[in-house]
């Protein structure tokens, strides 16, 4: 795939001018498939979660949540998940982890291609909005086909079908995505390669994030009384601290060029972490609430989930239009508000209430959180950094989104097991879900607070030069 460094970005722009309209449409569609395939892998696991769990004789919520958290941890090898039925749930979780590696490779490169190819402007705004709109629609299609295969046929075919789609997209991508090679000089010895890749920083960063995530997601299953849980957490935190030390003081070619980012980037990433962490809890608890508490079949729940698709498209178009007329910070405030309200609606929804009341309204609100925050954040970071750092900016947003989803599931699981009285009755299980959803409301509210501060800082920064000019006059 293309790496957005050096003069390659200008070559991309030149090639874009030679594209026919049909070629450009296919190019954008294939790049957006990176988002599509990544988010589909969330939907295909949600709808048939109990069916897959039953095939492995698993009922423990802590283990079932790993079916989702393991994927978001690494966001591949699509076929492994389909073959894991012949083994056990441990292989299935590892297969989901490997699927996440595919998403981790797809998303940053897809965003970097779009960021490096299109100049800032209305067209770029709309392209990024379309890319964001792929998320709710792919999650919807993933849940629908996951339910169809799992409820009416055999669940492994869900993942085998994904493998076929991925191979077709790969073949089409070879035809429509320009082939560009780097000429960035570096020492091609083994040590030189390690320095160029910042292997030490990568090991510390990835190791720390993985260990912290495992600790938080494993704690609800085995309890914090297990020594290895908090040992993993401590080692993970120390590894993350070592990562920052390496990036600032040691690495010749740091993975994340912190010098290229302003303080505002921290606010943007903080908002993204809160909003998508809130979303991760919502999407898991929503499906659990419908299937376990309301006893709705996976296929019918997928049908109820349909409003997310068209509403996501509407949110995509509106967001693309707003990004040329409104501050991205204000768009972020609106998106955080949507995440928060969506969680409030499902958290307070009565069990026996009609679907067309709070549940339906919730599904109309949540897509605005996804389709406003992701394009706004990626566009803000894309425009804030140099062309050569487009891939890094895209990687940061993708990492924060998926890691927040995975980590928030661990946090929600901890809250759930501490408030559900063991989960022996339906009322206790419901109490646990509501506790997790209230945590999601808190995360969304924190995102609203951070985004409001970001907007206030922007207004204040604009008023300062005007005031200085007035005083000078």
From TrEMBL:
<keyword id="KW-0472">Membrane</keyword>
<keyword id="KW-0812">Transmembrane</keyword>
<feature type="transmembrane region" description="Helical">
    <location>
        <begin position="393"/>
        <end position="415"/>
    </location>
</feature>
<feature type="transmembrane region" description="Helical">
    <location>
        <begin position="330"/>
        <end position="349"/>
    </location>
</feature>
<feature type="transmembrane region" description="Helical">
    <location>
        <begin position="161"/>
        <end position="180"/>
    </location>
</feature>
<feature type="transmembrane region" description="Helical">
    <location>
        <begin position="126"/>
        <end position="149"/>
    </location>
</feature>
<dbReference type="Pfam" id="PF07690">
    <property type="entry name" value="MFS_1"/>
</dbReference>
<dbReference type="GO" id="GO:0022857">
    <property type="term" value="F:transmembrane transporter activity"/>
</dbReference>
<dbReference type="InterPro" id="IPR036259">
    <property type="entry name" value="MFS_trans_sf"/>
</dbReference>
<feature type="transmembrane region" description="Helical">
    <location>
        <begin position="63"/>
        <end position="83"/>
    </location>
</feature>
<feature type="transmembrane region" description="Helical">
    <location>
        <begin position="89"/>
        <end position="114"/>
    </location>
</feature>
<dbReference type="InterPro" id="IPR011701">
    <property type="entry name" value="MFS"/>
</dbReference>
<feature type="transmembrane region" description="Helical">
    <location>
        <begin position="301"/>
        <end position="323"/>
    </location>
</feature>
<feature type="transmembrane region" description="Helical">
    <location>
        <begin position="435"/>
        <end position="456"/>
    </location>
</feature>
<protein>
    <recommendedName>
        <fullName>Major facilitator superfamily (MFS) profile domain-containing protein</fullName>
    </recommendedName>
</protein>
<feature type="transmembrane region" description="Helical">
    <location>
        <begin position="355"/>
        <end position="381"/>
    </location>
</feature>
<feature type="transmembrane region" description="Helical">
    <location>
        <begin position="228"/>
        <end position="246"/>
    </location>
</feature>
<feature type="transmembrane region" description="Helical">
    <location>
        <begin position="267"/>
        <end position="289"/>
    </location>
</feature>
<dbReference type="GO" id="GO:0016020">
    <property type="term" value="C:membrane"/>
</dbReference>
<keyword id="KW-1133">Transmembrane helix</keyword>
<feature type="transmembrane region" description="Helical">
    <location>
        <begin position="192"/>
        <end position="216"/>
    </location>
</feature>
